[in-house]
Each structure stands twice: as structure tokens, then as C-alpha cells.
Write a structure and sequence with these properties.
The protein is an alpha/beta fold and about 350 residues long. About 35% of the residues lie in helices and about 30% in strands. The longest helix is centred in the C-terminal third of the chain and has 18 residues.
Length: about 350
């Protein structure tokens, strides 16, 4: 049984979710200790409980220690079971993080798996719904992972209540990524989402992002998704596509930060990724790294930064696979080779 130290590196929920997903994929039992030891509130939280419950149901696994606040968990995976599943996180916990764990654990499915979740769609410390659907899913699709994602209702902190459905299809073969060359990103696209707040907030956010794109001679198109939710919320997600990849950025609105600043930050972050020659953005790399490891052959990409999350994920993947990561610094960009 693999022993995983949940306090390693960033020591958050990422280790827990990915360790369970990789256990389901490899059929290797795991024991995870010191769960989320580096967080103010340690142990399993509601969104982690949902992710684990979902993985357990999908692969008919056996679990010991699954309770809110638990710092130790043992998981014995079974066979992936196609079908339809439904879970309620019960809070504004991130649905996209749960979906990501479910996709990774379900790559060996022989028939479609459909999962309906209730919770938070756009919350802190997690990919927003629009980043999930316009950056993460297209990236893994290029690697051979086919999904359908449907947003029913957005959910914000603190009440959550968002709803979405994800269908995961059988994977024929995972394709490697060859993204060493600088890409031709000609246009920025985006969505400003807003619920239960004045319209001028989204307009100012959108205008600020558009202005930043104009200053950098980049064409852009940003739409506004005005909706209703149990809690007020807003944010912006931007992305840019080439023929071979997509890079993105995302920011949520917050008290004390102007709408203009949120829009500028999102555009500035994306434009910096493009200008330095990134082929995978800083946030996406740790999310797609497992697929690069699972794909046949060598994968290569250019990233502006290897975050603590990414380095933690590299360590975790080495616990499951005989994989080598080669990191080559090149001025403002880093080449990451996965063998």
C-alpha cells in the first residue's frame, strides 16, 4: 500500500484529490496521512468529502477514515463503474475541483459516466467554471479526453447552490503534448459572470480588460453572463487559443478591489503569459500534468512559472509512476519535459 504524506509541499486538498484519483486509475491502494496539514483548518473539508465519495462510487472502492476533519484516509480502489451519479457538496465548495478528480479517476471507463454536482461554480482557490470549460477541458481534449459539460446554475460563496452536469467518455488513447514552439495567439476571448449585483460592475470589468488588450494590440471579445444565484458574485475569465493549445487567466471579484482592477489583472496576466512564450499557463500546468504523465511518449511544454502546486503534483506523480521531469530555465520561460 502506498503511503502518501498529505503535508508535503503545498500540503492542501490537491494531494488528497489527486492521490485518490491516481489510486483509482492505477488500482494501487493508498494510505494518506497528515491530510491538509498546512491549512488553517486541517483535515477533510466538505468539498474533499464529495470528491472522495464520488471517486469511491465510480470505482466501487473501499474507504476508511472518510469524515469531515479526518487527517488520515485509507482507500482500496475497485473497477470503474459507468453510469449516472449525483452529489451535493452542501456548501460553496468547488465543483470544478471535484469534476477534475472524477475525470482523472475515470479514464479507464468503458462507457460514459455522467456526474451531476451541486455546490460552488466560481469560488476562491479553484478553477472558475469558465476556466474549467474554456481552458482545462479543451487542453485535455487535445490529449484524447472527451467530455460534455453543462452549466445549469452558478453558485458563489457562501451559499453555493450551483448546479452542473459533466459526462466523461471512454478514452481510446492519451496523446502526448508537443508544445515547445511559441504559439500564435491572435485573439483574446472571455466571459464576465455576474449575479445579484449592479450591471455597472460587469461593464467596468469588461471595459478594463478590453482596454488592456487594445493597448497590447490584441483583438478581443468578451461577453457578459448575467445570471441569478443564491449569493451575489462576479468575476472574469479570459483565454486565447492557437491551433495547438489554449492559455487562460481568471479572477473573481472581491470587496475592496475595483471592477477595473479585476479586469486589468485578468488581461495583464494573460498577456504576460502570451508575451513570454508560454504554451501552457501557470495554473493549467499542474491540472494537466497527470495526463502528460499518462500519455505515451515524451511531452514538452513552455511555462512561465512552476508553482508550488505544480511541484507538489510532480512529487505525487513520482509516488505512482516511474516518471522523470526535466526542467530547463530559459530567461523568462521554463521548458518542462515529461518522460
Amino acid at each position: 500500500m502506498l503511503q502518501i504524506d498529505g503535508s508535503y509541499g503545498e500540503g492542501g486538498g490537491q494531494i488528497l484529490r489527486y492521490a485518490l484519483a491516481l489510486s483509482a486509475f492505477t488500482k494501487k491502494p493508498v494510505e494518506i496521512n497528515n491530510i491538509r496539514a498546512n491549512r488553517p483548518v486541517t483535515g477533510i473539508r466538505p468539498q474533499h468529502h464529495t470528491a472522495i465519495s464520488c471517486i469511491k462510487s465510480i470505482c466501487k472502492g473501499a474507504i476508511e477514515g472518510l469524515s469531515i476533519g479526518s487527517s488520515k484516509l485509507t482507500f482500496l480502489p475497485g473497477e470503474v463503474q459507468p453510469g449516472k451519479y449525483s452529489f451535493d457538496i452542501g456548501t460553496a465548495g468547488s465543483m470544478t475541483l471535484v469534476f477534475q478528480a472524477c475525470i482523472l479517476s475515470s479514464i479507464n471507463t468503458t462507457k460514459p459516466i455522467t456526474i451531476k454536482l451541486t455546490g460552488g461554480t466560481d469560488v476562491k482557490w479553484a478553477p472558475t467554471w469558465d476556466y474549467f470549460t474554456h481552458v482545462f477541458l479543451p487542453l485535455i481534449q487535445k490529449m484524447g479526453v472527451s467530455t460534455d459539460a453543462q452549466l445549469i446554475k452558478r453558485g458563489y460563496y457562501p451559499k453555493g447552490g450551483g448546479e452542473a452536469v459533466l459526462t466523461i467518455y471512454p478514452v481510446k488513447k492519451l496523446q502526448r503534448l508537443q508544445l515547445e514552439e511559441k504559439q500564435d495567439f491572435r485573439k483574446i476571448e472571455g466571459i464576465v459572470h455576474i449575479a445579484n449585483l449592479p450591471d455597472h460592475i460587469s461593464k467596468r470589468m469588461k471595459h478594463a480588460a478590453l482596454e488592456m488588450a487594445v493597448k497590447n494590440d490584441i483583438r478581443s471579445y468578451i461577453e457578459v453572463d448575467k445570471t441569478t444565484s443564491f449569493s451575489p458574485g462576479t468575476g472574469i475569465t479570459l483565454w486565447s487559443k492557437s491551433d495547438r493549445t489554449v492559455v487562460g487567466s481568471t479572477f473573481l471579484g472581491e470587496r475592496g478591489v475595483t471592477s477595473e482592477k479585476i479586469g486589468e489583472n485578468a488581461a495583464d496576466q494573460l498577456i504576460k503569459e502570451i508575451n513570454v512564450g508560454a504554451t501552457i499557463d501557470t495554473f493549467a500546468i499542474d491540472q494537466i500534468l497527470p495526463y502528460m504523465v499518462l500519455a505515451e511518449g515524451e511531452s514538452v511544454c513552455m511555462v512561465s512559472e512552476l508553482s508550488n502546486h505544480t511541484q507538489t503534483n510532480m512529487w505525487l506523480l513520482k509516488q505512482f509512476f516511474d516518471v522523470k521531469f526535466e526542467v530547463k530555465k530559459q530567461q523568462d520561460i521554463t521548458k518542462l519535459i515529461v518522460r
